[in-house]
Each structure stands twice: as structure tokens, then as C-alpha cells.
Amino acid sequence: MPIVLESLAKIVFMFLLILGMVPVLIWAERKGAAFIQDRTGPNRAAIGGVRLAGLVHPIADVLKLVFKEDVQPDARHKAMYNMAPWAAMTIAVSSYAVIPFGDFITIAGRKIPLVVADLQVGALYVLAVASLGTYGVVMGGWAANNKFTFLGGIRATAQMISYEISMGLALMGLMLVFASLRITDIVAGQGDLIFGFLPKWGVVVQPLGFVLFITAVFAETNRNPFDLPEGESEIVAGFHLEYSSLKFALFFMAEYCHMVVGAALISAFYFGGYQIPWLPRPVLEAHAGGLLTGKLIAIIIVSGIFAVLFLRRAQKERNKFGDARDREPRIGAGLWLMVAAGAAGALLLKPWHIGPQGAEMVASIAQIFAFVGKVVFFAWLFIWVRWTLPRFRYDQLMHLGWKVMLPLGLANLVVTAVVMALV
Amino acid sequence: MSFEGLPAKATGKKMTFLESIYLVEIVRGLGVTISHLVKNIFATEAMPTMQYPEEKRVYSDRFRGRHHLMQREDGTPRCVACQMCSTYCPADCITIEGAEHPDPSIEKYPASFEIDLLRCVFCGLCEEACPCDAIRLDTGIYEIAADDRAKFVVDKEFLLHNKSDGTR
User: What is the pTM assigned to this prediction?
Assistant: First the structure.
């Protein structure tokens, strides 16, 4: 029975992590795009005058989409049309089952591995689910019975077939290096050092494989520069053209869930997952007390700086708007001061004297944070690339997939195999 | 127009090897975008975006805004209902009904003077056609909104007291 509870807790944690990151990513997408293009971005929606630099907008968007009328085309295939958004969403979150988000955590004397399902063929499962991801797009495109959605679906299929192969080939090189298909093994293997100073991350041992993999992941998630299934300048909105209200919201969320999953895959396979470079688990546990103290002091300093900045703004812009928005800097300063006070209070508990159990817990949590940090960075990379690169033309996409990435993937595999056989 | 002398095909610059593998150029592009992002985070106020309802753009004095009927010293309209503006109006948005003026030195006055703001194209030809400088587009008002079509047809009283909203 405890094992069921454990798994449920881990599933809930994963789900909350993904679904919690979606609104933040939507905000980062809109605000980041705006700042990259010298605009201010969303800054209007507010709760009691507090706008959180636009973070309230995703809530407003979701509320709007939930209460909107659900307009559907007459000639749709009813069952498929209704199933497609759910299929997209379900498949987007299901590859998360095999990605380890930490090493293990000890609760009440039980050593719990921090992965929902530690499959022996985890890497194969990832590839299988990634290719299923196209089904939501294809079903939606076909069932809506519109030529543009249909084209979007066809493009998604062709793109999936072309890039799935390079993705698999890139992963095969990694599997050869770490001699396992189990993702926990691959991540654990990345904790070592090569030549005594270089972390044995996937990106270090398989640089070409990393480039191929990240390109393929961009193509799988239908993000720029590979967002041809959406291609709003050519086929209006592609596969989700005929969807509105909650169903559109689901497609939208599925895209961001895909991004989070893609970022998690990149960090698990090529950037050491939960591993902190040069700080393996035993070292982490030995210095947990000092680490925690240092972290708390850093939190106090950073939040203090933020509080001072907010107070200065509150001084300077006391009556900038003449409405509830003027309270914003004061509330922000108060929140940061509270964070600083909380950290100072934690310091009073003498965190440098934590016992071995506490040290283990601190190490586990530090590793979870390392993983989440890497995921956040790569999710931001998806957004960053989207607002930097233009979309590929269809023939360029096919050329890159079949004539460049496939031969490179094969060469990478052969070279890796030869080197592994010789060493 | 002739195309002689022009190359049959566009001759772009040939890509060097480094450019043709994209990666270096992609990283450079990422550098450009992130530099904009960082610059704008630290200098949000310097962005060219105008926070519209709070900040308003200052227009030139020649900007043609909502119409304004000029008044005589006693407050009656200067207009003599000559129909010049409504005849000249390309959008046909001015409707004037003239009536006899009690003062014998003035021939007529407008019993009603209506402008359909939804039809008006703000070309300013009425202003130019007017022989007695009775209509002007000098209010500088460009925020013309209502929740009913009928409210866009403005009458003489409205136009006589249509003043600048202070945006210029």
C-alpha cells in the first residue's frame, strides 16, 4: 500500500510541477517576447492593483477561455474532434513518468527513488511517447474537416517522421556511452568526472548528439523554427484553427507541457539531470549544514536587495497612476522583506547543526532544485529561440531532417561505437 | 519598366562554411535578442511604448480631430446654412436645414446641423469650403467612441460646445 501512496505522491508532484510551470512559461513567453522586441508586454490585468509584472494575465486568459462559447464546425468528426485536445494533453504529460527529478529521498526510514516509473527501457518509452505526441495534432487537424487544419496535421506527421529518426540516433549514441536504456542509470552515470575535472555530462561526451537531439526536440514540440504545423502566416493557425474556448486552451497548454517535457529530457539526457557538477551526493551530504547556511544568507542578501529596490521605486513613484496600482511597489517590498525575515528566522534554528538525516534531506532537495533549475533554463531556451529565429520553409525542413541530421546522426553513432569498442 | 541589365536570378552573398552550419550564427542571434531583453529589463522607462490611457501622444496643431462649430459673440453659430460644406463633403456626412434669421443683415441660420461621425473621413474639406470660417476640425479630439450608432450623429448644440479635450 505505501508504494501506491508513494507513486501517487510522485505523480501529483510531477503534475503540479508541469501544470504550475505552464502559466509561468506563458508569462515568460509574452513578457520575454515583448522585451526582446523592445515592447513592454502585458501589464494591465491586476488583482487589487497588483499586476505582478503581467503574471496575472495568464489567469485572466484562462478565465476568458473557460467562459467563451465553444464554436465547432458542422462537418467535424464528433468523437475525434472532442478527443484530440485531451489526447494531445495526456500524451504531452505522460513522458514525464520515466524522468527522474531527483536521486532519492528518505522519508520515515523509507528510501524513495524520485522517479514515477523506473523503466528498464525508459529511453525507448520516451521515444515511443514522443512520436505518439503527433496524434493529438493529426486527430485535431483531420477531425475539424478544414483544409488548413488538415495541412497542419499532414505537416506534423511528416515532420515527426523525419525528426524522430535523428532523435533516436542521437539517443543511441548516449545509450552506448552509458551502456543502459534506463534513464536513472544514464543520469547516475553523468555524476562522474572525466579526466578528473570535466563532469561526464551527455553534452560533454556526445556534443554532436546533443545538437541533433535538441534540434529534434524542437521539431517534436512544434516550436519555432519548426512550428510549421501551426504556420500562422501560411495556414492560419494550422491544426487548432477550428478549436475554441476550453479545447483551444488544452492545445495551448499541451504545447507548453511539451516544452517542459522537452526541457526535462534535454537536461536528463545531456545535462546531468539532478546532478550538481563537482558536487556528488556524498560531498553534498557532508557539507549540507554549511550549504544550507550559505543558501539562507544568500536568500537574505538577494531579497534584501529586492526589497530596497522596491522601496526606492515606492518612494519615487508615489503617485504615478493615482489608483490602486500605486500600492504595488510597497506590497512587493513587503513580500521581499517577509522572505528575508523568514530566512533570518530559519538561521536562528542553527541550520549548520543538522544531523545526518537532515543532511540527506537537504541533499535530496538541493538535487531536485538543480533539476528544476535546468528544466527552467531549457524551457526559457525554447522561448528565446522562438523569438530569435525565423520559421523554416517546408523544403528546408525536409532537407535539414533527411540530408543533414540523418547522416550526421549515423556518423555520430558509428564513431561512438568505434570509440567505445576501442576504449 | 524593363528588366534589361538586371541579373536573371537574385545573387545573394554566398554563405561561408561557418555560416552554412547555422550553429554559430544562431548563437550570435541569441546574443542579439538577449542583449535587447537585458537592456529593456533595466531600462523599462526608456522603451518607446506609450501607456495609452495614462500617456497621450502630442499631435501637431494641424491634426484634424472632431468638428467644432464656431460661435458669434452672442453665442449663436457663425454658420449661415449656405450648404457649401455639405455639398463639398466627399463622405456626404453633413446634413443642414436652414431657416430665416431674425436679423435682416444675416440671411439664414442652421435650424439643424448634423454630422455623422461614422461616415466622416476627417478630410477637412468642409473647413476649406466654408465661406465664413464657421466649421473647424481643431478640437484635437480623436477618441470618438459610443455604444450606439445613433450616438455618432452629433447635432448643432453638441458641435457648438465641442471643445478641445486638452490633449494638445
Answer: 0.80
Complex ipTM tops 0.90: no
If you count residue pairs, one on A and one on B, with CB atoms under 8 Å apart, how many are there?
38
Instruction: Give dist(CA A27, CA A256) in Å, integer.
Output: 11
CB within 8 Å: B40 and A211: no
Answer yes or no: do B48 and A38 touch at CB < 8 A.
yes
Quick one: which of A87, A85, A116, A111 has its CA closest to A264?
A116
Do residues A169 and A311 both lie within one domain? no
Residue owning grid cell 528575508: A340
User: Both A178 and A327 in a single domain?
Assistant: no
Asked whether the beta carbons of A280 and A313 are under 8 A apart, the reply is no
Query: Could you report the per-residue pLDDT of B51-79, keeping only the tens digit for each?
Result: 887 778 888 888 888 888 888 888 888 88
Q: What mean pLDDT is predicted for residues A356-383? A: 85
A237: number of CA atoms within 13 Å, CB side?
10
Whether residue A331 sits in one domain with residue A222: no
**Looking at residue B120, what is its pLDDT?**
92
Residue A6 belongs to some domain of the structure? no
Q: What is the pLDDT of residue A87?
A: 87
How far is residue A263's CA from residue A101's CA, in Å, rounded to a whole number? 12
